[in-house]
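Could you help me review a protein record that somebody else here produced? What it holds is a sequence and that sequence's fold in token form. I have pasted the whole thing underneath without changing anything:
=====
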Amino acid sequence: AGQKTYNGVAILSRHPIGDVQVGIPGFEDEQKRAIAATINGVRVVNLYVVNGKTVGCDKYDYKLRWIDALHGWLSDEVKRYPQLVVMGDFNIAPEDRDVHDPKVWNDDSILTSTAERAALRRLQQLGLHDSFRLHNEEAGHFSWWDYRAAGFRRNLGLRIDLALVSEALKARTAAAHIDREPRLWDRPSDHAPVFVELS
């Protein structure tokens, strides 16, 4: 589901895909930022969360309203589908250990502001676990680096791409990692792929 040159989300599977949902039910929004489907009994929700631009602007307010609508949807999804994965570009770094410099990325910064992190924690309180943190406690692991100022080479990054797993999938989470290698390719994305492996 996408908008040309703007927003888009997709799910690709080698197995049959069913019960597809595009967009957040009940939330009128022409931007293509959410898609869900069920694959082999696992409900997959793929997101491209609003960036928000700057704290306090209209886009920031829209981001918080969008996440609030997402919360309402996921509270139903986790009941309907105990085996649930919610993944994508969240445009929020959960904690200080997920940013290269907490003094730069602080409570007043976009992607790390108090309200954004509180909204993410509220989603997790539905029973969703950060799969990466089930296997990696260390700081300094990032999934996004700014193209400017040699951000990748200097490892000036943020971990904003997440895969959250439900309580029923927590024990099945065999591994979770970030693949930095594609970031070295010619003309790469500013994001690196994030994986969660279920046993």
